[in-house]
Design brief:
Helix content: 40-55%
CATH topology of the largest domain: Rossmann fold
Distance between the termini: 78 Å
Number of strands: 17
Number of domains: 3
Mean pLDDT: 88
CATH class of the largest domain: Alpha Beta
Oligomer: single chain
């Protein structure tokens, strides 16, 4: 059945019964329907089922404007954009209207005149969910004209109208979000006088544009986001606007490692294709997210800035790229990420850390390496606490030494690792046995060695590799670089 295209056709359709429903009523009804159908309310959002999610639901059921407060990388923008799922699939609007006027309740002068002129023949268009969402990043240079509107002298000249005529107004972002959702990110960065314009149009529905009073009873759901530390760092939310925001909801970082891994798995681009198979062991995924968790705890990292979940996402993507580069260079058909790839991916860490004075003295790269080591140690203890590494430790105590270059082939690396008594067998704690591909066995053994180093049972030197815990033993076995640029085994 075709959709109504005129006001007369619309009045005879099923939509007529819902003509007086506001946006917040519409969202409330659709939300309740999805809840009764046991549908997922916030698809793609992990870790908020018992915290942030219910509070957003309460705000929407209460028909509140609300604000999400949280540090960077806590899915605030994704949550806000996901609210469009609670809008109707399509709604009618007067065709050609800048502010998507309701055919039954027009608020702009042009639409009222059009309906008076054409009556039931007034043309109708249908708005999708996406067209009813407007988002603005608040910056100090935003003007009232950007947000509310301004007089357009060119339009006045072309139409032969006086500037005092309402038809000469060029509407800003807020009126263009009429009958939809308007979101402002980083609200404290918005100048106070602009915030005044927002609460005035929200509460009273009137505003002045260049001294011309305009009555705009807009139908909106307004949603904001902010970093709580920005209240004093860059700006503040004025009290009258805070008073008109119905609910204040705090977001947070993943509460558990498992939640963090699930988020990173869903967001990181790891399925590269191109004929090279990529297999990321779960323990390495845990290490990647543990790096972010350790960074949030580290006293050298600025707690007010936070450590975004994007650190773990970027790090995992870089780790896969490092493994992919090695596989392509060596002509292997399997890109197997290893601990060496974590250290090769330091640029994905250093750019996302805001350091305190102590951290600045050490340098971001040094802090990043220490975070990787801490993360490996944490995950190593989860898997290998009860394992017997006496034969491995004895080999190192007796002078054994091993260096596994990042570009070593799986075959050469496995041959070298096999010289350490009992190491390959210990990989069973990671569910890796001799039936697994060489690259996977190498990755598991390197993780175990790095874990022993992180827990200070053996030493690790960037140039020499793994050795005795006191680092006094001269190398006896390992990889060394030769003039030809190839990696050979002593």
């Amino acid at each position: 059945m075709s959709k109504p295209r005129t006001l007369g056709e619309l009045s005879k359709s099923a939509y007529y019964a819902r003509r007086n429903r506001t946006v917040r009523d519409e969202i409330r009804e659709n939300l309740l329907a999805r809840m009764k159908a046991r549908e997922e309310l916030f698809p793609g959002i992990v870790g908020y089922d018992d915290t942030v999610g219910p509070r957003i639901v309460n705000a929407l059921l209460s028909r509140h404007h609300f604000i999400l407060l949280g540090l960077r990388g806590q899915a605030k923008t994704r949550l806000i954009r996901g609210l469009t799922h609670f809008l109707d699939a399509e709604i009618p609007a007067i065709a050609g209207c800048e502010i998507h006027d309701d055919p039954y309740h027009p608020i702009c002068s042009a639409c009222r005149s059009l309906i008076e002129e054409k009556g039931d023949e007034t043309p109708i268009r249908w708005l999708t969910r996406e067209e009813r969402y407007v988002e603005k990043l608040a910056t100090p240079d935003v003007t009232i004209a950007d947000m509310i509107g301004d007089l357009d002298p060119i339009r006045a000249a072309r139409s032969g109208l006086d500037l005092s005529n309402e038809l000469t107004i060029h509407y800003g972002l807020v009126p263009r979000a009429h009958r939809g959702i308007f979101a402002i990110n980083e609200l404290p960065d918005l100048a106070s006088k602009i915030q005044v314009g927002l609460f005035n149009i929200l509460q009273e529905g009137d505003v002045q544009i260049k001294g011309y009073p305009v009555r705009l009873p807009l139908d909106l759901l307004m949603v904001f986001s902010a970093n709580p530390e920005d209240y004093t760092a860059r700006g503040r939310i004025i009290t009258p606007l805070k008073d008109r925001i119905g609910s204040e909801i705090r977001t947070h970082y993943p509460a558990t490692l498992e939640q963090a891994v699930a988020i990173t798995r869903g967001e990181a681009w790891t399925d590269r294709g191109g004929g090279v198979e990529t297999m990321i062991p779960y323990y390495l995924r845990e290490v990647v997210d543990e790096v972010a968790i350790q960074a949030r705890k580290d006293r050298r990292v600025d707690k007010r800035s936070g450590v975004s979940q994007r650190l773990a996402i970027s790090l995992l993507e870089n780790v896969v790229s490092s493994a992919e580069r090695r596989a392509v260079t060596l002509g292997e058909d399997r890109a197997q990420p290893r601990v060496a790839d974590l250290y090769a991916s330091l640029p994905a860490i250093t750019g996302k850390l805001e350091l305190e004075y102590e951290g600045e003295l050490k340098g971001a790269e040094t802090v990043g390496r220490e975070l990787i080591r801490k993360a490996v140690g944490q995950i190593f203890q989860k898997y290998a606490t009860a394992s017997d590494f006496r034969s491995v430790l004895k080999w190192f105590d007796e002078g054994g030494w091993l260096r596994l270059p990042e570009r070593a082939s799986s075959k050469d690396a496995l041959e070298s690792l096999s010289r350490i008594p009992g190491l390959l067998a210990r990989a069973s704690v990671l569910n890796v046995d001799e039936s697994r591909p060489p690259a996977e066995r190498v990755a598991a053994c390197e993780f175990l060695l790095e874990g022993l180093a992180a827990t200070k049972r053996i030493s690790r030197n960037e140039e020499r590799g793994y050795g005795r815990s006191d680092e006094r033993t001269r190398p006896e076995i390992g990889y060394e670089e030769v003039d030809s640029g190839k990696t050979q085994l002593n």
